[in-house]
Amino acid sequence: MKTTVVPIAAVLGLLLATADPAAAQTATGQITGAITDATGATVTGVRVKITNTLTGLTREATSSDRGTYSVPQLPVGTYVITAEKEGFKLAVSSANDLKVDQVLRVDLTMELGALTESVEVTGRSVALDTETASIGHVITEKQVTELPLNGRNFLQLLFLGNGAVETTGEQGGMRQGAGNAISINGSRPTSNNYLLDGTSNTDTSLGTPAAILSVDAIQEFKEQTATYSAEYGFSANQINIVSKTGTNRLSGALFYFLRNDALDARSFFDVEKQKLDQKQFGFVTGGPVLVPGAYDGRNRTFFLVNYEGLRREVGAQDFLRVPLPEELAGRFSSAIIDPVTRQPFANNTIPSNRFTRLANLALTRNYWPAPNANVPQGNYIRQRNLPTDTNQVTVRIDQKLGERWGTVFGRYTQTDWTNSTLGTVTELGDVFFVQKTKNWQVSHSLPIGSTLINQFRIGYVGARADQHGFTAPQADIDAAGLTGVFTNLPDEQRTYPAIGFGGTGTGLAGAGSAVNDYTASYQPMWDVSNTTTWVRGRHTLNFGGNYRRWWLQRDLANDFLGQFTFSGFFTGNAVADMLLGYYSGASVFQPAGFSVPGRSGNPRQFNFMYFAPYVQDEWKMSSRLT
Prior knowledge:
Blueprint: E1 2-5, E2 13-17, E3 28-37, E4 47-52, E5 58-62, E6 68-75, E7 77-84, E8 90-98, E9 103-105, E10 108-110, E11 118-121, E12 135-139, H1 141-146, E13 164-167, H2 170-174, E14 181-184, E15 192-196, E16 199-200, E17 202-203, E18 208-209, E19 218-226, E20 237-243, E21 251-260, E22 276-288, E23 290-291, E24 295-296, E25 301-320, H3 325-328, H4 357-364, E26 380-400, E27 407-421, E28 431-447, E29 452-469, H5 474-480, E30 498-501, E31 520-536, E32 539-555, E33 563-566, H6 574-580, E34 585-587, E35 604-619
Parallel strand pairs: 1-35, 2-35, 3-9, 3-10, 8-11, 15-20, 30-33
Antiparallel strand pairs: 3-6, 4-5, 4-7, 7-8, 12-19, 13-14, 15-16, 17-18, 19-20, 21-22, 22-25, 23-24, 25-26, 26-27, 27-28, 28-29, 29-31, 31-32, 32-35, 33-34
């Protein structure tokens, strides 16, 4: 395989910001605030404890000489915040929902009294983000799971924000029913950086998410389009997806969604009612890891497993014009000129012994069906049912390693997607799309101290997006006797020679394989990142780097056994030209000097490397200045 090296310059982002505190490498959030007494004076040396109500994760901080506290790199979730100091009542703030890449401000007021007494606040009235200048919006778990989504595709929720539109491209063809390319604020679809739990989930060949995660496995996601923090890069727009985690409560759900044509009416222009049979099914379950009598994982070890399947069959109808059976047998109603003698054939009939090997193959394999209609739109109504099958599984394990060693989690997601589209007149011209995606990640968060925390991530995404035509038996290809073409083609590349019409045959349906029916694309990518957050006085320092290495393996060669066009220039009839083998145009991808030895097609590999270190200092000059 030929290798082409494409260098990407290393990017150094050195940012001194006054408006955008570090939220710790994409998939986490930060809680910050100020501690005051009843008079509004700051209270220093307060022990602040932050606890995740679902997993029991606890982090602590101490209010500074300005009475402020900050706890970075917290997993998304709901938190209870307590503040305690001798001589004051215990201050408690509950039901604080922390979202992805959010800096949540929770101020606490302490009253004089004993620690055995408490003052609890259960609501937050301020919804305005006063801590960051980033432009974006969060899609919450409630929106993901409860808003109606045709096909249960979370990408549709991107259109809830301003500036997102759907555009055309090969993305829509590769994933039938999963949407097309998405442009945000006028940028190219390839300018979207899809992240899953903080590591790449982008198929760079198509500009789409490699794995379209099931909505039952999504905690929430955030779209950011401008003025986001320094840790983000790679593309103009950031779409951060956070997968669900297990909690202390064992829970689960089964689902089954059915759509069909039982109550549908026939469309006015359809000959018959079109088939629709769509089934989506699966389950999600999660909770603590419990082994009776051996291990109790509550507040320590959690799991989540999700499976989703799709089986869809959709009818398609169109009108075509096909050659008449008499014409395919060599019998015509008008004079047919013999290109050899330049005289008309007797009785307007071409002897069958003059038919070419290609014509005989087309007739033997019924390239064209017999007409079944006589309407202005054509003499053949094509009615086909096209299938789409999807299987996806996600497994996630979270483990608390103790106060000293922090937490670690691992997640594995695999998606298999296949669907078919119409090509030429019969199933010999169908195009089949096959996508296989694997995405896994391991992440470790280590609190080095109450004001210093480090998070390391390593992830891998392998995204395959291939398409191929109907496989022709080798015996049929041998019968055509083609020369100057690749031999020993694999099944995905060995399709029937294609026949099309022009000139006097304009309007007749082509047959055989579809044009450009084969492409292959595979992108393996490694993603390694590290983020360190240090809260020191008025400053929140965030520094780290992101390293990505990926290979784009593509083969865009196709039509290995030829595309032939017949136009009637030789006999006066395009079908007669086809029977006799007088083509007006032909194309084929042939072996040549640049071909890879021992390989058919034109496989190429492009190597990419991306390294982006960054430093950001968020300096809070005053609690009254945002």
